Structure formats: structure tokens, C-alpha cells
Design the sequence.
């Protein structure tokens, strides 16, 4: 319904206007009345109005002054003017101030209804157009937010290709300030209950919305929030490395979740990461900190030592050496180093011992991912950290870690096999998260240590498409989504979907769909 204000110094005329029209049938309602221009302006300060029907000859403030004031202060108002045959100066004022219609007194029922119907239709079209613009802007913001999270995924997963586009991407996604700062990745997850409640799964969405709303309200460069498929129950935030900011954010998250969801939450910050190249390690350290924090909070264990602890810093150097042993297939050196470091950690404290086990698991997992090798046990490790906590001796922990790493060494010796579906699924995930960047099969084959021809044939057998065709299809599907849901130009869409320029994008689009991107967009508008 649109609101109408009647302005005339004669009460009888205002009453007559009320009775002339079936206002509801036109989608209108009379919101108020005024006896002159001044009263009308006073009413407009607090009332909501879409249409004004005004006489021109009134005391105190006539219609001319009212029209001029409305033109300046309320340019979106629709004005319908009532005047007599000899009021030519008033007609000139109505035209000058862009009145919607000028009706001569005495106005008939059909004339007034026609003028109001015309104005109501214009307002309805504008309202729908504004709603469409807002929806389009919202979809664009959500799409860009989704792409920003995909970009963060591609950084923390260290996918090949696209690194030369990082500067362009961080500018596009508003990450320039964060990329230049030292940051901490913060892992956030609800503390599991002893017996999972039936509504537990239903808490995931409100939990995520609460965290995202809190992150969006933060000042400064903003706090990006994202999920990662390997840890679906966790949210991750990237917070500037400022002890006060990290403490404030973690405290606010815990308080908000406790207040609204009546649940306890574990919020754990990883180690500082300076620059995008360090984001992967910063992310992984937050995963480790969360699982350690979860157990400490559940069991009331001793607190973890600070990131600046010299024992921990020494261990980080050894972990890099451990990863080199894994990557190079040096089994004896790996096992010797694991045993030595576990013994040192256990002598220091049990939590430090467990933390090292988790760090070794992450190192093994990262190496396996780089080789395209699926480790069946690794998901169980993260799901049940309680089991890892029970590894109370160096011998037990060594047997567990040696067994976890054995498939990697077997593969390096040439007597092990990779699960072919896992490498194909990894490649598909890489494309989904990294389609906007430069991707080519030779880079991926090199990263996963596969023969290029073999990997190309394997991908086509498992998916029914060549690598390039699959990549193009993903890009085209994203392009269609952008064409349908956003007002972005073809150049912007080409850039966001991994095409070198708008011309090449249009050529490929027409080859795939039979029509140009512009024709597709026009076609969708008329459906």
C-alpha cells in the first residue's frame, strides 16, 4: 500500500476527495491530512508519504511554496495538483516542480482515479526495480564473499598456479590490509556434549550466522570467516595479530554463543602468520590449537604453553626436518627423529607430548595430500582426539605414527599404490576452489608426482571429460550464475571466472551455449 497525504484548506473538499475513490482497490491509503503547505511539511517530518494531492490556493503557505519545498526536501514524492481554470501561474509552478499530474477543479471521480492509478503504477514499478537492485546487490555481495573464501582456500591449500594473481585478488576481495599484516587464524567450534542432542545438527547454521555477524561488525580491515571441508564443524576467522583484538574477538564469540545458543564454545588462535605465504601454516596451527583446546577444556588439563615458548619453537624447526624426511622417503631418519622429539616432549609435559603427536599427524597428512595419497586413518584422528590423548608412552605413539606414515614410504619405494579416485577428487576440488586462477594439468601432475599422460587419461576415465573441458564447464557454470544474478560487466565476469579477456570469454560462451553472454542475459530478463 502507498500512503497519500491530502492538502486543502477546506475540510469539505478533503472529505469529498476521500469519498470519490476506492483507495484500497488502487493499492492506496490516506495516511493524513493538512490544511495548508506548512502543516503538510510539519506532517512530512514524522509521517510516511508517497503521494501528495494538494490544492494551490491556501492560506499561510500556498501550493507553490509547498511544491518547491517538496522538490528540494522530498524529491521522491509524487505530487498531484488541483487548481482552477484561471490559475495559470500555479500550472507553471506544477510543471516547474515536476508534478505528476495537474487536475482542474472541479475534479471528477474518473479523472482523479486515472491520475492516482497512473502514479501508483509508477511507484510499483519503481519499488519492484529497487527490490531487484537490492537483490542483485545482495547476490553480488554473497558471490564475492563466496569467491573470497575460495581464494582463501586456494592459499591455505597451496594449490599450484595463480600465485602471480594474488595481488589482484587481495585487492578485489578487500584483503589488502590483512595481507600486509601479521594475522592469527582463529578456529571456532562448539564444545561437544557427552551425548549428542538430537538438535545438535540444527545448531550449525545459527552458530555460523552468529560468528559471521560478529566478524562483520568488527572494525578495521574486517575479519574474514570461512569453513573448510576437512573440519566441517569448525569455523575459521582471520584476525589481525593484536593480542587485544584476538582476546576481544574470542571473548565476544564465546559470550554470544553462550547467550544465544546456550552452549560452550572452544575458540583457539593459531600462531602468527605474516604474508599470504604463511597463511597455510597459520591455518594449520589453529586446527591444532583447537583440538588441543577442546581436550583441555573437556578434561580440565593443564594449559598449553604460549606460542613464544622456546621448547615449542625448537620443535617447529624439527617438524620442518621431519617433513623433508617424509617428502624424500627417508624412513629411518624420520622414525629416529620422531622417537627423539616425542621423548623430549613427554619429558616436558603430557600436553606437549600430545601436541607433538598432532603436529606429526598434520605433517604426514600434508605430505600425503601433496602426493595425492588418501590416508584412511587421518579423519578418525581429528574426529576423536580423545583416542590420541590416550597414547601415553613414546612406544605407543611411535607405532601409531610409523603406521600412519608407512604408505608414504611404500609409495616412494615404488611398492605402494595411490587410490586413483582420491587424486581425481582432489583435482576436482582444486578446480572448484581455484577455477578463477591459471590452472594447467602439467603443474598438477608435477605437484602430485604423477606422469602427465597417465594423469590426463585417469581424469578423463573417472569424469568422462578432459581436464580442460571439466575446467571450462566449471567456469561457464559460474559465469552463467554471475550473468543471471549480478549486474557485473562482461569484463568483470571474464576476470572472475578465469578468462583472459571479455572477447575470449564471449567466444567460448557462444561456443558452449550457442548464444553470446549478452543474449543470454537479455533472454533471462524476459523469462
Sequence:
Amino acid at each position: 500500500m502507498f500512503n497519500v497525504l491530502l492538502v486543502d484548506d477546506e475540510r469539505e473538499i478533503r472529505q469529498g476527495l476521500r469519498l470519490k475513490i476506492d483507495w484500497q482497490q488502487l493499492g492506496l491509503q490516506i495516511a493524513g491530512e493538512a490544511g495548508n503547505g506548512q502543516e503538510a511539511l510539519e506532517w512530512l517530518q514524522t509521517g510516511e508519504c508517497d503521494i501528495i494531492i494538494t490544492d494551490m490556493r491556501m492560506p499561510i503557505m500556498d501550493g507553490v511554496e509547498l511544491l518547491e519545498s517538496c522538490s528540494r526536501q522530498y524529491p521522491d514524492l509524487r505530487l498531484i495538483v488541483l487548481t482552477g481554470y484561471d490559475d495559470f501561474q500555479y500550472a507553471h509552478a506544477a510543471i516547474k516542480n515536476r508534478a505528476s499530474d495537474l487536475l482542474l477543479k472541479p475534479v471528477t471521480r474518473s479523472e482523479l482515479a486515472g491520475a492516482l492509478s497512473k502514479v501508483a503504477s509508477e511507484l510499483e514499478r519503481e519499488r519492484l526495480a529497487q527490490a531487484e537492485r537490492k537483490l542483485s546487490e545482495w547476490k553480488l555481495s554473497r558471490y564475492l564473499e563466496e569467491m573470497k573464501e575460495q581464494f582463501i582456500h586456494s592459499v591455505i591449500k597451496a594449490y599450484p598456479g595463480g600465485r602471480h594473481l594474488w595481488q589482484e585478488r587481495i585487492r578485489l576481495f578487500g584483503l589488502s590490509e590483512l595481507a600486509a599484516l601479521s594475522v592469527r587464524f582463529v578456529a571456532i567450534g562448539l564444545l561437544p556434549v557427552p551425548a549428542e542432542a538430537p538438535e545438535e545438527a540444527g545448531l550449525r547454521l545459527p552458530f555460523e550466522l552468529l560468528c559471521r555477524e560478529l566478524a562483520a561488525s568488527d572494525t578495521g580491515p574486517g575479519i574474514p570467516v570461512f569453513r573448510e571441508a576437512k573440519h566441517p564443524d569448525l569455523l575459521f576467522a582471520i584476525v589481525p595479530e593484536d593480542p587485544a583484538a584476538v582476546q576481544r574477538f574470542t571473548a565476544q564469540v564465546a559470550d554470544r554463543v553462550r547467550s544465544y545458543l546456550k552452549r560452550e564454545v572452544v575458540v583457539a588462535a593459531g600462531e602468527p602468520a605474516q604474508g599470504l605465504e604463511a597463511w597455510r601454516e597459520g591455518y594449520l596451527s589453529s586446527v591444532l590449537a583447537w583440538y588441543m583446546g577442546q581436550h583441555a577444556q573437556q578434561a580440565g588439563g593443564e594449559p598449553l604453553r604460549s606460542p613464544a615458548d622456546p621448547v615449542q619453537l625448537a620443535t617447529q624447526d624439527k617438524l620442518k626436518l621431519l617433513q623433508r624426511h617424509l617428502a624424500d622417503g627417508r624412513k629411518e631418519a624420520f622414525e629416529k627423529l620422531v622417537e627423539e622429539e616425542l621423548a623430549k616432549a613427554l619429558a616436558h609435559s603430557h600436553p606437549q607430548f600430545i601436541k607433538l603427536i598432532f603436529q606429526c599427524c598434520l605433517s604426514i597428512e600434508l605430505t600425503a595430500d601433496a602426493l595425492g595419497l588418501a590416508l584412511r586413518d587421518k579423519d578418525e584422528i581429528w574426529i576423536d582426539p580423545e583416542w590420541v590423548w590416550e597414547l601415553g608412552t613414546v612406544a605407543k605413539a611411535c607405532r601409531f605414527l610409523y603406521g600412519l606414515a608407512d604408505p608414504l614410504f611404500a609409495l616412494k619405494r615404488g611398492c605402494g599404490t595411490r587410490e586413483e579416485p582420491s587424486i581425481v577428487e582432489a583435482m576436482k576440488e582444486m578446480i572448484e576452489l581455484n577455477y578463477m586462477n591459471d590452472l594447467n594439468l602439467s603443474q598438477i601432475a608435477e605437484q602430485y608426482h604423477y606422469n602427465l599422460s597417465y594423469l590426463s587419461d585417469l581424469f578423463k576415465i573417472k569424469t568422462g571429460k578432459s581436464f580442460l573441458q571439466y575446467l571450462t564447464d566449471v567456469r561457464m557454470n559460474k559465469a552463467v550464475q554471475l550473468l543471471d544474478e549480478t549486474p557485473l560487466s562482461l569484463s568483470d565476469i571474464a576476470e572472475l571466472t578465469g578468462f583472459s579477456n571479455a572477447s575470449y570469454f564471449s567466444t567460448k560462451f557462444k561456443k558452449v551455449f550457442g548464444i553470446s553472454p549478452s543474449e543470454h542475459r537479455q533472454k533471462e530478463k524476459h523469462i
The first helix runs from residue 11 to 20. The longest strand covers residues 182-190. Residues 358 and 485 are 43 Å apart (CA to CA). The chain has four domains: 2-129, 174-299, 302-418, 423-525.
